[in-house]
Amino acid sequence: MSSTHPPTSPSTNPPVHQPIGPSQKGAEWLFDTTAADGLLTPEGLSDEHRLMAQTAQEFLAKEVLPAIDQLETKDWALARALVKRCGDLGLLGTDVPEAFGGIDLDKAAAIVVGEAMGGSASFATMFGAQTGLAIIPILCFGTDAQKQKYLPGIVSGDLVGAYCLSESGSGSDALGARARATKQPDESWVLNGEKMWITNGGFADIYIVFAKVDGEQFSAFIVEKGFPGVSHGKEEHKMGLHGSSTTPVILQDAKVPAENLLGDIGKGHKIAFNVLNYGRFKLAGMCSGGAKMVVGEAAKYATTRRQFGQPIASFGAIRHKLGDMLARTYGVESALYRTTGLIDAAIAAGGGTSDAALAALEEFAIEASILKVASSEMLDFVLDENVQIHGGNGYVHDYPAERHYRDARVNRIFEGTNEINRLLIPGMLMKRALKGHVPLITAAKKLQEELLTVGGVGEVRRSSEGAKADGVGLLKKTGIMVLGLAMQTYGAAIEQEQEVLMLVSDILMDAFVAESAVLRAERSAAQSHPAAALQHDAAMILVHDAGLRIDAAARTAIQTMTTGDTQRTMLAALRRILKVTPVNTIAARRRLADAVIEKKAYLF
Ligand SMILES: Cc1cc2nc3c(=O)[nH]c(=O)nc-3n(C[C@H](O)[C@H](O)[C@H](O)COP(=O)(O)OP(=O)(O)OC[C@H]3O[C@@H](n4cnc5c(N)ncnc54)[C@H](O)[C@@H]3O)c2cc1C
């Protein structure tokens, strides 16, 4: 697959350190060489995980998908029945302790279930609000009494939950909420305000509501539908997700007992941000699952639809699309499971408690943002190509392609817009560096010294041991170099330079996904997995294309930040770092397409 040599100078290797496995901390992958050994991959899931996945897939195929047209008429009695059924099957409480009705499995179990739910975006959104947005705040921040009172009902599906953070005037700027909470002489609370776009709003029993105590201290409350002064507004007329309820939630002198304050007064932001971390990570599972299902749908359609006397699957243009859809899905899936393994290892090391889970999700907040953006954009790409493969049939309601396309668009908007998440990625990285958690500043300085002696990237060597990740280290180096240059150029004013920060984010995301794909292919090769050669093709495409995109992003950023000799030196260094190895990615896409056309389902 590769015709040129790997970099030979010691200084061209990815930054220092021994290869490390699953005990890496958040963002360490950027500075370390990760060993493929011990990495969590879908191939390495346990029998228990596979059983959970099968239960969830069968539930979706037999109970949700046949009911989707009816669900889209906003039949909320049906929605409740499906949530209840999901609870009966144990799918709402995969990662909830048994004491509260859950089955206390790891996050990998939650992800395999979330992936299955991704087959119906409307149901997945309902499911996400229930399991992530309603359960997690109570589980991680509730008192024992609150957990006992509310969790068993939400986990069993007898109660439906919703999460009320956004308001018409404060979406991205969630802490700018205007909803107020006023303490009464008897210690109870009166809440006033209107929350917007609340998933499950039309039929939820329990709302997690954020409001400011005395208009200042951002706090959270558990609010029951039956409390006086609580109501919901009309259903929003949305572009997609017609089978998911989205309404305003209105609090008009709503009376909330003292014991329903969730967490501490003024600490609501901790709840909101941690829940978002989890939500982003889970959303990536649903996007990955949705894309995997649609790759199969597209391949099936391409083999049955005939034009010019042959199946459209025989045309190179269509095969190229199928190969691309498959490779991109594989990349995000690999990054998702890699992160899941790291989170589960951190939770286990912390004793497996809810506090350990919270700490682990915070530790991997950068990866959660990367996964949220990468997965939602990958899914939109896959669904757009699926419509295109379906031609006119992709544009009409008779085929699911049109619904998938509309339903998925919101993934780039909720759980923090992709712009906000793109800003968070370098922002959190710089914060971690300032706290001494990651060696960003030293790595950036060292890189500047190395700039004259760098090698080439775009190469995933094939050898008896399988694919190698040598080249990807240089993609990561480019990210460190551009972020280091931005910190040097703008200092404390870097926050104002959103365009450069977005480019840095794009580089880091591309590098993380490409590296995850390579490591997984390497692991599969080492284990002689039957799909190893095709995984290798997918990884090669991802590294090659990431190299091209990273080149453009880094060039744009460097040209903005430098002039004269400095600019010439930096651009020359970039040319050497990102010397993309010529590889035949069209042939690789064809091999992937051939396999997916034959299997008519996602390959890995
Ligand atoms: C179907 C659906 C379901 C939802 N479910 C829920 C739910 O259950 N609970 C809940 O609380 N909310 C929910 N939301 C709300 C959702 O979280 C918000 O819509 C989202 O956070 C974006 O906020 P906004 O709509 O106010 O957009 P805005 O914040 O107004 O953003 C508009 C644009 O400006 C950009 N922008 C904003 N600020 C910045 C900045 N600082 N720098 C750069 N760019 C910026 C954004 O990226 C975006 O492109 C849901 C929304 C939808 C559509």
Kindly describe this structure.
- The protein has 4 domains: 10-18 and 438-587, Butyryl-CoA Dehydrogenase, subunit A, domain 3, CATH 1.20.140.10; 43-160, Acyl-CoA dehydrogenase/oxidase, N-terminal domain (Butyryl-Coa Dehydrogenase, subunit A, domain 1), CATH 1.10.540; 163-268, Butyryl-CoA Dehydrogenase, subunit A, domain 2; 273-420, Up-down Bundle (Butyryl-CoA Dehydrogenase, subunit A, domain 3).
- The chain has 604 residues and is an alpha+beta fold.
- The model is unreliable at 1-17 and 454-468 (pLDDT under 50).
- The chain has helices spanning 47-64, 68-71, 76-88, 107-117, 121-141, 144-156, 268-304, 316-349, 354-363, 365-390, 400-408, 418-434, 440-450, 472-490, 498-526, 532-561, 564-577, 585-599; strands spanning 161-164, 180-183, 189-199, 206-213, 217-224, 230-232, 246-256, 261-262, 306-307, 310-311, 456-457, 462-463, 466-467, 579-580.
- It contains 18 helices and 14 strands.
- Strands 1, 2, 3, 4, 5, 6, 7 and 8 form an 8-stranded mixed β-sheet that branches. Strands 9-10 form a two-stranded antiparallel ribbon. Strands 11-14 form a two-stranded parallel ribbon.
- It binds flavin-adenine dinucleotide (FAD).
